[in-house]
Design a protein that fits this description.
By secondary structure, this protein is an alpha+beta fold. It has 17 helices and 16 strands.
């Protein structure tokens, strides 16, 4: 029998040690910023009950849920004749659980389920994989990580201000040059009211959200297809053409939505947030962008999206305010706001721009060459001492040819190699080879410690 060719399911990936070190650098950087702002971690199971997931992401989302087959004789419980039943309905009869599609719905379920143990406002972060039965393509995977940070149980716009600061800190620490686009769903609702199409609000936002990707002409075509009149589309024109500073855009907007209470409330919220940044230092550009709509329907207030300035890639972070996400689980009127960092896209940007710090790839700092048994006995306590001092160290496990040992050190980007033979054991000095410069020096153990730290 021929050996099976190893492979992974489409849309999933293995990560090599080098990739993992870089990914962990991103996760650790993000995590440290979250902690600096007082957020605490939670985790939820990979699978949720389908009843928790279904109907929360719209019809498209429901199709993209990975369903898990019930264990045991699952077909015996199917009531209908298999040949007649629609496959989607059958799936629900033979599976009760599914892999989570995002971290937001499980978070809402968590908050409602544990509300008696939680202190509100509840500030949490969550870094875990999610799964979508999407068609895999460049930059789109079936299994990927989300890094979410949310605060729930507070209406204060200080939370929006804090999230903008978090985004600023993360991209500063990662050295990614980015811009935050900001909008408010209330303004978009006000605009829908102003053009006389409030009931088509969702259609309008879904179309506007594609402006970047498909251009104005195609967006107008889509709006016409959705039954929005030509005169209403004509009224949208000045919105797409708004330019100038944030302040100038806001004053034009006030005139446009002057007859919509909701629209004016949205403008006021954005003004409040922007006013805080008159006294707060921000390293990142913050731009009011009225074409930013975010596809998800549960957003009700501020919405954010972050783009990298130096790389052609979609948004690398996004989120917004949702006023009743917990309502679907029976806890009414609890407002929350949060953003999600796209670790995979951030990775791609940093790879493209070659801005990962060089030193993170080398996990081992010092390697002892192995010359034989008595040298091993001499070197092992030194390796142990280095590890106790917090220096990542290893000894080559066998006395192989020198070339093999040096190739190993090179391939692992180990910066220092220590050679200890008869001479060194007698003199008590260590021969230290700097693998970057190629220089060799003889050092006492204490001097070695100083050099590498």
């Amino acid at each position: 029998m021929a050996a099976q060719k190893p492979s992974v399911p489409k849309g999933t990936r293995d990560f090599s040690p080098v990739e993992m070190v870089k990914r962990n650098f991103i996760f650790d950087t993000i995590k440290n910023v979250f902690k600096r702002f007082g957020y605490l971690p939670i985790e939820t199971p990979s699978m949720e009950n389908l009843s928790t997931l279904m109907g929360k992401y719209g019809e498209e989302g429901d199709k993209l849920l990975f369903k898990i087959l019930n264990s045991g004789d699952y077909l015996s419980k199917v009531k209908s004749n298999l040949s007649e039943v629609e496959s989607n309905k059958l799936a629900l009869e033979i599976s009760e659980k599914g892999l989570r599609y995002d971290l937001t719905v499980p978070f809402a379920r968590f908050v409602v389920q544990h509300r008696s143990e939680i202190t509100f406002p509840f500030k949490r972060y969550q870094i875990q994989p999610v799964w979508r039965a999407d068609r895999p393509q460049k930059g789109r995977y079936r299994e990927f990580y989300q890094c979410d940070v949310d605060v729930i149980g507070s209406n204060s716009l200080l939370n929006e201000v804090e999230l903008i600061q978090i985004i600023d800190h993360v991209f500063q620490d990662l050295k990614v040059n980015a811009i935050i686009k900001l909008n408010n769903r209330k303004i978009l609702l006000g605009i829908a009211e102003m053009i006389g199409e409030p009931e088509k609000f969702i259609d309008i936002t879904v179309a506007i959200d594609k402006l970047d990707k498909i251009g104005l002409e195609k967006v107008n075509e889509e709006l016409l297809l959705k039954g929005i009149s030509e005169s209403a589309i004509e009224k949208l024109k000045p919105i797409f053409e708004l330019s100038g500073s944030n302040k100038e855009k806001l004053s034009s907007l006030k005139k446009i939505v002057k007859d919509s209470e909701t629209g004016l409330k949205g403008v006021e919220e954005i003004e409040t947030v922007l006013n805080y940044f008159k006294t707060l230092k921000l390293n990142i550009d913050l731009e009011l962008d009225l074409t930013l709509a975010r596809g998800l329907n549960y957003y009700t207030g501020a919405i954010f999206e972050v783009k990298a300035k130096d790389a052609e890639i979609g948004s690398i972070c996004g989120g917004g305010r949702y006023d009743d996400l917990t309502g679907i689980f029976g806890l009414k009127d609890v407002s929350g706001v949060g953003v999600s960092f796209g670790a995979d896209r951030i990775y791609d940007v940093m790879e493209q721009l070659n801005i990962f710090p060089q030193e993170i790839v080398a996990s081992t700092k010092v390697m002892f060459v192995n010359f034989g048994e008595k040298e091993e006995i001499y070197c092992l306590p030194l390796v142990q001492k280095l590890r106790e001092e917090g220096v990542n160290s290893e000894i080559f496990p066998e006395s192989a040819k020198m070339k093999k040992q040096m190739t190993y050190a090179n391939n692992k980007n180990i910066p220092y190699v220590i050679l200890v033979g008869d001479n060194e054991m007698q003199s008590g000095l260590l021969t230290v080879k700097d693998m970057v410069t190629g220089e060799q020096s003889e050092l006492k153990f204490e001097e070695l410690l100083q050099k590498i730290s």
